[in-house]
């Protein structure tokens, strides 16, 4: 039986920045987005909500893709009060269920899509599985978004200058994807599984950018991360594990060290809207990947490996049944 190739070792030093550095970029620099349509996953809170707010404020029609329709409706009401005249709609999307992903894509009533922000995610959860049997962090953070982007690709290709933005994390530096154990069945460590899912986000962008370039498609695939931002995501894992102490510590750390979600959304908004964003670029906060204006972000060299990205792509297509026919 042939052995599965080993991916590059996770102990190597981070790669060098790959993006010309914007200086002092802010929401004031977002261009007019009138006539554009954007889908933002996990738009009911945190980075997703802040991203949706700015896109709507600059004229875009924004689809709030949320697992909970009730929380999505509450977010829509809040944004409508903050952004008079905002064009918003809520659609249910559960990235932990490929049936929900397929239904979302099939019922989205737009032939053209200008922007897909793959923002929703989970972090450092106790072991669990999705509706389709995948380890939850890998299934939600990577496979759900992989399937969504593939199903929406025809609409993205129909919109000149469209973009796909994957939201990763500096935590990707803690772990490379293990193709021999994608679902962490041999050993589950919650932070390692999270890191691997965030490396998977960057490998996805690397391979999608390569495939789009080969097709000469007018779509940019890029990645971003929010640094350390107070989104509530940090406390979810301890809460699910029943650790009140862990949950309190997460909230305390957010109050002391984290920047607000509105600041964390800036690198995502830069990747989504700034002129000249390069395919396969990675944007994060300027100050030590922690906080500040958008700037080139360090990324692990294994996230730039052509062979690794192709192997993960093939595995993801097999697991989800989404094969990106338009990029073959």
UniProtKB/TrEMBL annotation:
Region Disordered, annotated ranges: 1-29
Record bears the keyword Oxidoreductase: yes
Highest taxon, organism lineage: Bacteria
InterPro entries, A to Z: NAD(P)-bd_dom_sf (IPR036291), SDR_fam (IPR002347)
Pfam families in the record: adh_short (PF00106)
Keywords (A to Z) from UniProt: Oxidoreductase
Gene3D superfamilies with a match to the protein in the record: NAD(P)-binding Rossmann-like Domain
UniProt key word Oxidoreductase: yes
Family: Belongs to the short-chain dehydrogenases/reductases (SDR) family.
UniProt protein name: Oxidoreductase
Species of provenance: Streptomyces nigra
């Amino acid at each position: 039986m042939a052995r599965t190739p080993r991916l590059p070792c996770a102990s190597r030093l981070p790669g060098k920045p790959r993006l010309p550095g914007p200086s002092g970029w802010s929401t004031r620099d977002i261009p007019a987005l009138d006539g554009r349509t954007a889908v933002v996953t996990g738009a009911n809170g945190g980075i997703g909500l802040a991203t949706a707010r700015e896109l709507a404020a600059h004229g875009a029609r924004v689809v709030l893709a949320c697992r909970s329709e009730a929380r999505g409706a509450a977010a829509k009401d809040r944004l409508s009060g903050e952004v008079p005249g905002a064009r918003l709609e809520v659609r249910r999307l559960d990235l932990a269920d490929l049936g929900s992903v397929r239904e979302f894509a099939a019922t989205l009533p737009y032939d053209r899509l200008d922007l897909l922000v793959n923002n929703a995610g989970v972090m450092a959860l106790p072991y669990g599985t999705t509706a389709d049997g995948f380890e939850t962090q890998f299934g939600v953070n990577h496979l759900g978004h992989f399937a969504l982007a593939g199903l929406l690709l025809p609409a993205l290709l129909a919109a000149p200058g469209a973009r796909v933005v994957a939201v990763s994390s500096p935590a990707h530096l803690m772990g490379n994807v293990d193709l021999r154990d994608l679902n962490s069945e041999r050993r589950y460590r919650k932070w390692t599984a999270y890191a691997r899912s965030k490396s998977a986000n960057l490998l996805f962008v690397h391979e999608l950018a390569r495939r789009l370039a080969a097709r000469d498609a007018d779509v940019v695939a890029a990645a971003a991360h929010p640094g350390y931002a107070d989104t509530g995501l940090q406390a979810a894992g301890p809460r699910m594990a029943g650790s009140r102490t862990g949950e309190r510590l997460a909230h305390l750390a957010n109050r002391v060290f984290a920047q607000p979600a509105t600041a964390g959304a800036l690198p995502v908004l830069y990747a989504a809207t700034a002129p000249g964003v390069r395919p396969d670029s990675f944007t994060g906060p300027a100050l030590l990947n922690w906080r500040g204006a958008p700037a080139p972000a360090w990324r692990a060299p294994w996230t730039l490996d052509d062979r690794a990205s192709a192997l993960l792509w093939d595995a993801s297509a097999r697991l989800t049944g989404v094969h990106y026919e338009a990029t073959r």
